[in-house]
Design the sequence.
């Protein structure tokens, strides 16, 4: 059912025009972005959403994602007073608190696209690993040695818990701290390196190069206005394997993943 259909009995025609056309589901949490003018109707909007049986809590996005941990504030506008949930994606289970560590359900298909490119026996590095969704999905479906690095202690807490929850903790080495400091010290080389920090992952390419071998594939995420702009922003001599758009960011900007090798 379309969100606007669900809200049409409680909002005026003018309010419906500024109401969002959809919402995100993370586990049993419904996440909605509301125009300031709909503030006085937020409880009523939440009540409508709570009629859908899979929703236990309705949260409203507050503020922007501007910090290093890539998290934002949320306000509970209906249902149980919680920001923690269990999200299921491609057969993997992720426990998380949406306010303390980053997670986006919109990247589910992208994670599957990356998993499909990983072969048994490979050694994989996931920089900026968050609560572990890339590392855990890959470890669940491939026989790999996989290392993950994350700076947010809350992200690390859930990453460790989620690895156990999915019974892949023996396949994943988890490192807490700054990618630059941690990875720069390593002599290890990886077959594929995933860099899911679209805000500025490209500034860590020197670190990725250090732990790459001749044919290592890098999966670099970036915000850009077009595929061409995303590729041009990479200041290294590279061979592009693929470049896909994987989600919107603002009206003109999207998230891209560039799969490439260093030349
Ligand atoms: C966009 S989130 C992606 C998280 C996860 N890969 C996912 O897809 O859900 C980027 C993550 O990078 C982490 N991060 C930011 N700067 C970092 C750094 N210098 N070293 C390690 N992790 C970092 C943030 O805390 C955040 O969890």
Sequence:
């Amino acid at each position: 059912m379309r969100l606007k259909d669900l809200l049409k009995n409680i909002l005026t025609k003018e309010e419906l025009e500024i109401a969002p056309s959809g919402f995100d589901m993370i586990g049993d949490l419904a996440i909605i972005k509301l125009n300031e003018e709909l503030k006085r109707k937020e409880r009523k909007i939440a009540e409508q959403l709570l009629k859908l049986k899979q929703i236990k809590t309705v949260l409203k996005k507050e503020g922007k994602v501007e910090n290093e941990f890539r998290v934002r504030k949320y306000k509970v506008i209906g249902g149980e007073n919680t920001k923690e949930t269990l999200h299921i994606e491609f057969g993997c289970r992720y426990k998380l608190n949406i306010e303390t560590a980053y997670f986006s359900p919109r990247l589910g298909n992208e994670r599957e696209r990356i998993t499909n490119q990983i072969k048994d026996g490979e050694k994989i590095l996931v920089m900026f690993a968050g609560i572990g969704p890339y590392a855990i999905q890959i470890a669940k479906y491939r026989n790999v040695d996989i290392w993950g690095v994350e700076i947010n202690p809350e992200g690390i807490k859930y990453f460790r818990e989620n690895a156990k929850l999915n019974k892949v903790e023996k396949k994943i080495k988890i490192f807490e701290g700054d990618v630059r400091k941690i990875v720069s010290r390593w002599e290890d080389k990886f077959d594929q390196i995933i860099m899911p920090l679209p805000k500025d992952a490209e500034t860590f390419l020197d670190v990725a190069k250090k732990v790459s071998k001749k044919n290592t594939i890098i999966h670099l995420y970036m915000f850009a206005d077009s595929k061409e702009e995303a590729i041009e922003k990479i200041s290294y001599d590279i061979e592009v394997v693929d470049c896909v758009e994987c989600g919107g960011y603002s009206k003109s900007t999207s998230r891209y993943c560039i799969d490439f090798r260093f030349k």
The two ends are 49 Å apart (CA to CA). The chain has a mean pLDDT of 97. The longest strand covers residues 212-224.
